[in-house]
Design goal:
Layout (H helix, E strand, L loop, with lengths): L2 H17 L10 E5 L2 E4 H10 L2 H7 L4 H20 L7 H26 L4 H14 L5 E2 L2 E10 L5 H13 L4 H8 L11 E6 L5 H9 L10 E3 L2 E11 L2 E2 L2 H30 L5 H13 L2
Antiparallel strand pairs: 1-2, 3-8, 4-5, 4-7, 6-7
Helix pairs in contact: 1-2, 6-10
Length: 296
Amino acid sequence: MSILAVLKKISSYFLLAAVGTVVTPSQAQSLITGHGVKVEVKEIQEDIERALPEVKAELIKSGNLKNTISNIYVRRVLASEASKSAVAKNPLVLAAIEKAKERILSDAMLESIDQKNQPALDAIEAYARTMYNANQQKYGTPEQVRASHILIRTGEQDAKAKLQDILKQIKAGADFEELAKTRSQDPGSAAKGGDLGYFGRGRMIEQFEKVVFAMSKPGDMSDVFESPFGFHIIKLTDKKPAGVKMFAEVKDQLMKDAQNEILMQGRVKEQARILKDAKFNDQALESLEKSLSAKP
């Protein structure tokens, strides 16, 4: 099933709930009427289908859809009343309508141009691979480590000695994670057995980073060392060298970028066609620039 079909199915379901019926509503069915205007199922469905996922998720929450429909209806009634009043003859209103009309028509034309230039999937993938090969440094991944630690804070009496005793227990066979849970004074990691997850350079304080990135293989353990937070023991869990993400890892985003770039090239070509025979009034432009720059 296509994404569009899924969106139609979901939006139909929520519209069904909104109007309180047990059958799929006719697209021509009105959701709200009065004052000579109405809001129909079809237009709301179309709006939801065009909406971004996060906007759509908000729209279909309980109560939000009805509020949205109410707002559209109120705006439509006001527009209808305005068209029959002196407001509709206001020069500023008329100018704004012309600008809105111009924007809507030009956007519709751009959409038509995009549809005409819509590339095939194999063309998009070929372009995506070209982008990937030309910008591999963009997809680089820095060196990362995963580590666990046990912390005894500086204010603790005999903090260093206590941590040295813990290290001695670990070397004698005690479980690092269990000791981290019961003895570590780092509230963010103690409950997870001291685990800090993966991180790169620049995430930890200097003393901690220097020790952990000097460790070479999983299972290595540091000696007791001090930082501004207190005394630490680090156990290295994993180490990932710097590298470059494979094309497959970034393909989805690259395909989107490639499609947008191809469509943009079509728009630029269309812009060049339109501007080819245009004639700028350089004198008027220069005069305008001077008048604008002279204003405070």
